[in-house]
Amino acid sequence: MSSTAQRFSNIEQRVTGLETRQFSITPTPLIYAAVGQIVVFGCLITPGASDADWVIRMEGQATGDEEHHNPDAEASPVKYWQYPNLASIKDGAFAALDADYTLEPPPPEGLARYDIAYVYVGPAGAGLNVAAGTPSSAIKDDYDLNGVVTTPYDPGTDAALPIGALPIARIYVEAVLGGVAAAQIADLRDFESRLKGSPLVWSDLTPSQKDELIDPAVAAATAAVLADNEEFKRTMRTFHWLGI
Q: Whole-structure pTM over 0.85, yes or no?
């Protein structure tokens, strides 16, 4: 029978293998059920080359959006993970270069509408499209009073999207504005998968809750420092990954 040290070594090797395994972005039914529709990198909607036209742009490396840039992006990608715009949607992996899109002409004076930009995967591959909303004077009045609506996509009030599409921006369209500026675009990108829980806010915890978090961590760190040997540290890492 193998020794305890050998058994822990075998477990560590298996855990290391799991840590380093790279899963495809293409969601299987199981992965999609766990992760859901999310933007992975990029997919930021910005005005086109000018604020004086009705062209929008999907950017993967936009200035000011560095937190969501793909660190592996290439100018001429050959692999999925090298594209600047990546997302997981119901129909598979969305992977695309930057793209421009021309909106439908604005409604008559006195009316306005909200369009929804979305990404999808169709028979011809990944794409960017826009669903035009229904024009109304109420939308214009609300915009004049409160600015662009920034709430998440609502299928009850926003333009309907095809099955499997992932909304990434809401765009305010009014003829008098003459085009699309940054102030008319609401970012609807979702980077939170279903696997991510609510963030821990330290200041919201009670003293006893803080102690519950600190004491085990301090004890483990102290033991590791006192032992100061690689075998002990490997064992602690194994316990951590096994949830022990």
A: no
